[in-house]
Predict the structure.
Amino acid sequence: MKIGFIGFGEVGSTLARSFKLEGVKVYTSLEGRSRRTIKLAKSSGVNICPSFRQLADISDIILVAVTPAQAVKAAKVIGKNFKGLYVDLNNISPSTVRDALQKVSEAKTVDAAIMSSINKGMNVPVVASGKHARDFAELNSLGMNIEIVGDKIGQASALKMLRSAYTKGVSALLFESLSVAYQMEVDDLVLKYLAETEGPNFKEIAVSRIINSILHGERRTQELEEVLNFLSEYEDPLMTQATLDLFRLIVNQGGHLKKKPNNYHKLFLKMSR
Amino acid sequence: MKIGFIGFGEVGSTLARSFKLEGVKVYTSLEGRSRRTIKLAKSSGVNICPSFRQLADISDIILVAVTPAQAVKAAKVIGKNFKGLYVDLNNISPSTVRDALQKVSEAKTVDAAIMSSINKGMNVPVVASGKHARDFAELNSLGMNIEIVGDKIGQASALKMLRSAYTKGVSALLFESLSVAYQMEVDDLVLKYLAETEGPNFKEIAVSRIINSILHGERRTQELEEVLNFLSEYEDPLMTQATLDLFRLIVNQGGHLKKKPNNYHKLFLKMSR
């Protein structure tokens, strides 16, 4: 079996190295890729195709892990040349997945989403949906950890985005309630009383959410914009709009701690201690 | 020691009965009270004062547990006649507590909040703040469960309201994410994946939050209005405004399930099974 990769960042390179160790022939193309990607690909010892057209010709399975903005373009580049299994692992909304997969209309297509940090390696939990998700899940025999979550394209991406809407919303709630609590000198007590209803690890998780929301505020704001677009197709996403607005406050008002810290950042500074 | 009660609903009557069993002399006044309160007071065997003026004369401690709308009025009725310990147990915002306690300027005042269901009896967790909170906490020797949370009036009420902002916000996030998940047939999976980050009891708590938010939607909406007023003094409460808006949707659009159920109510119906 030959597996082709489009996108050779963290996700692509981690999976490619793991498959190679399992004896699978692994390919990518560096056509138009960034210097960093080229370096990563060459150092990993993966086979390099001169063009995506040739990558499509040689691969049985193509795994795509590019930035959200490149997802549709990647599918377009492969186009109708590919008749194997095309798996979209990108961090994009269900409708963007559908847009992308329509471009590879001759392939068997799978919507997939990585549900945890790729640092876990090939064993990272992955969800997959679509009529051909079962074909993708056969890679579990090589050490992947794929769960089939439905037979419709979009369900896997939806699952990831909905989890994201919830967890980022919780982070925003923590900022809103704890920043006032901090001003009133009851933040430790609010955490203590919430732990009684929310579970024993609540405080630890809450502190890490506050710290990570500040440290990765810009990326989360971008992700929230994508989540908001998705939810807007189904309802008026009141909470996610507020979450996005609050993350924008964190990103802009705080100025990454270079400016005078506002109350959200005072909270961050206390929690970071 | 003589304890006077203003307000003789669930909270007042439960505490009064418990104190009586401990051998404390317990008083209330039925001046201008509702028929239900009069009935409760008479059946509990508490001593009845003809007026609040006499209640103030005879009591060492006055515990006040009335509806939010009556809290300031109750303090006004007692006025400057009382020089004992006046404990505000009402479910009101810090600034309303301060408004109320200014009316009893000769008394030693305490801000207190009941943190769980009064069905637990006298042992229900209570938080208290203010310079005289320690005096109130002496009632722990009789079986109360009072924690002192600060020396400022407003801190105890703030603690309760901030917990409320967080937990009701979480309920709103559950409605927003799970109603779309339900439409996409991935609601069970969203709950499953969230349980991995949010803790083992997550699903059970989430289901009970959805059910109770619908069943007690009107009361929660009123509570959220009070919480929103409080937070607005400190920040732009983006999340709590969205939470209130979402609860208003639940209350109005759903029409308590008499009308055609919307997606929030479809979710409720599934979770209630």
Summary: The two ends of chain B are 51 Å apart (CA to CA). Chain B has a mean pLDDT of 92. Chain B touches chain A through 55 residues (CB under 8 Å).
